[in-house]
Hints:
Layout: E1 17-21, H1 26-47, H2 59-64, E2 68-73, E3 79-87, E4 95-103, H3 112-124, E5 129-135, H4 139-147, E6 151-152, E7 156-159, E8 162-169
Parallel strand pairs: 4-5
Antiparallel strand pairs: 1-2, 2-3, 3-4, 5-8, 6-8, 7-8
Amino acid sequence: MSDDHLADPAVPPPNMLIRELDLSDTATAAAVHEVGRRAYAVEADLIGFDGIPALHESLPDMQARPLRWLATMTSDGRVAAFVAWQTHAGTDPRVTVIDRVCVDPVWFRRGLASRLLNHLLTEVVDSGEVRVSTGADNRPAVTLYQRLGFSRAADYEPVPGLRMASLVLRR
């Protein structure tokens, strides 16, 4: 294992590759699942709510989700960050819903989420409406989405104690 994850956080990570993932591969799915659990544990602390569904999702349940997955990979092939989304072709093919964006905490503050989302929004889903939700108190995530052009819609509370921010990008 390389030590590239120990680099200065002010310096962008070198030799990172963005690629689509196949979660039918158990090793790939397990790596994504572990990164997600670490990232959601940090978000749970940040928003003061540990009932985030993805934090408690099993590996088979995650694999069964009808999502596409894109990841930033380290030079030695580890998942550093990922985004998962679904285009709702059954209801409106012009609407894409981002299900989750996770960065391994050792890679926080390096621009990986921005880079992944920019790639998704320009190279994969380059038109139509894009929707995403995040914990309303997750200021880094809300700020990131707004910086990328998302507008904040109404907040909602799916369960008591969890206030979510809805954001929409219309293009």
